[in-house]
């Protein structure tokens, strides 16, 4: 990544300490954004992401917040706004996979946890983003990028059916919210990553799933991050309500 002289404004990324979120933070910094990096537990990793953004000549801060808690989402948005300025883009990225087994044997508590973070938190973060960016709330517009999953469309290779269903809610959020706020200066977009090499996959999962996409390999977080950076930029100015597959053809 190299520095740019372009200044685009402030972007907030949920789950920015690792994986796709961390790569998106660096790609967005390289593209001229000041970056609010949210994390839940990995303080050191978040600090490293902030440093990488600063080395690209941008301002960046790390903010600890659990986005399953509505009051923590509010504090997160308020902190980023107070420290960096008005938020012009939000990458709604935090999510989990939880080993699930057969649907017939699901545990309700685990299921609620998956939907809590992947679906409900994503909707709450989207609402918080709209309250900061929409002209209907005194904002001056912006872009929301929701991180869904190719599993939302394909199912999840014979397991993790709950995860796929929780991400289908994100796809519906992107379409529905775009209809709601497009006339208020907010564009709502999404990405559907395929299998991407990050810590979200427990040891051996990628090998076990064994589905090779047409491009012949799993993806890298940076390859999703580049698409997120494009969607957040003015280059996507005539797009809203769309979700882009970044899945190696899968
Ligand atoms: P990682 O497990 O590598 O990173 C997850 C990130 O989310 C971490 O930064 C983590 O923070 C954060 N996070 C988790 N729970 C919370 C929470 N409650 N509040 C705040 N932050 C939280 O995952 P990926 O980078 O692989 O995944 C990112 C997104 O991409 C997810 O939504 C995932 O579903 C989606 N995706 C990933 C695919 C893949 O193959 N990797 C495929 C399709 C979609 P911390 O480390 O500080 O705890």
TrEMBL record:
MF terms in GO: oxidoreductase activity, acting on CH-OH group of donors
Stretches assigned to the Ketoreductase domain: 9-198
Pfam families per UniProt: adh_short_C2 (PF13561)
Alphabetic keyword roster: Oxidoreductase
Keyword Oxidoreductase annotated: yes
PANTHER family reported in the protein's UniProt record: NADPH-DEPENDENT ALDEHYDE REDUCTASE-LIKE PROTEIN, CHLOROPLASTIC-RELATED, RE15974P
Family: Belongs to the short-chain dehydrogenases/reductases (SDR) family.
Identification of the protein by name: NAD(P)-dependent dehydrogenase (Short-subunit alcohol dehydrogenase family)
Taxon lineage: Bacteria, Bacillati, Actinomycetota, Actinomycetes, Propionibacteriales
């Amino acid at each position: 990544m190299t520095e740019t002289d372009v200044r685009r404004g402030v972007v907030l990324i949920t789950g920015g300490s690792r994986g796709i979120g961390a790569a998106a933070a660096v790609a967005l910094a390289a593209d001229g954004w000041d970056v609010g990096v949210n994390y839940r537990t990995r303080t050191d990793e978040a600090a490293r992401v902030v440093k990488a953004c600063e080395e690209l000549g941008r301002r960046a801060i790390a903010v600890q917040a659990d986005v399953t808690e509505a009051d923590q989402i509010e504090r997160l948005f308020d902190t980023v706004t107070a420290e960096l300025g008005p938020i012009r883009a939000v990458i709604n990225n935090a999510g989990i996979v939880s080993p699930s087994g057969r649907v017939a044997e699901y545990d309700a508590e685990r299921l609620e946890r998956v939907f809590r973070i992947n679906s409900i938190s994503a909707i709450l973060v989207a609402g918080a983003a709209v309250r900061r960016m929409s002209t209907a709330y005194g904002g001056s517009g912006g872009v929301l990028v929701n991180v869904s999953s190719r599993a939302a469309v394909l199912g999840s290779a014979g397991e993790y059916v709950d995860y796929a269903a929780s991400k289908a809610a994100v796809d519906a959020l992107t379409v529905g919210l775009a209809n709601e706020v497009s006339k208020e200066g907010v564009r709502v977009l999404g990405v559907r990553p395929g299998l991407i090499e990050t810590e979200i996959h427990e040891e051996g999962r990628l090998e076990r799933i064994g589905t090779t996409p047409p491009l012949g390999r799993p993806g890298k977080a940076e390859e999703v991050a580049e698409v997120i950076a494009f969607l957040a930029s003015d280059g996507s100015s005539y797009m809203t309500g769309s979700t882009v597959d970044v899945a190696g053809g899968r």
